[in-house]
Batch of 2 targets.
Target 1
Amino acid sequence: PSPTGLSLPTLSLRAGGRVEIETPSRRRILFYILRGSLTVNGAEAATGDLVRFADGERIVIDTHEQSIVLFGHGDAIDEPVAASGPFVMNSMAEVDQAWRDYRAGRFGTV
């Protein structure tokens, strides 16, 4: 288990295969299709698609061709989330402040 509760493994799937995954509740789960095409719970997905799942949803994958999928899952944080560009905060006001700080050079230099 990850100390942060976040996991991001890569799945390499053979053409013509089927995978069934039982997911625990209280996890946020997504697939990002890096390469290939497949059917996920009856819906078509292909390279570049992001697929999100409901809490505790069973996942059934049928592959049409060799595919690579980024399988992200993490603990539910039960907090509001606001995002813009690279910034993820709890409110848009915090995101806006982060942009102002960035533009003002308050993040230092690389």
Target 2
Amino acid sequence: LFLFLALRPVFLLKDCRHELTPHHIKSISGLLSLHRREVNIPYEDLRGVRADQSIFERFLGVGTVVTWTHSGSSPEVRLMGIRHPRDVVAIISDRIDRAILRRSSGGTTGH
């Protein structure tokens, strides 16, 4: 059990790739498995974001960033194995706020 817990964050770091672009979150998972999933979500479509960390993940400095869209209450994307997840949540929250401001001021989204 300890070995599984110790290796899980390492596997997650290698099995997933995440990008925060100026206008959307891009998540690719399953790089090391048979099923590959790619998701792109514009910041203006996000309703919320939070960081989840187990005690072991906090010790390693990794965690999961969970996002929600306007279309539902369940998490849309779970970015797992993220280093410094609270910092990433702050970045995403700032970009959500900027997207809302652009939308409310009539600016373009730049897609």
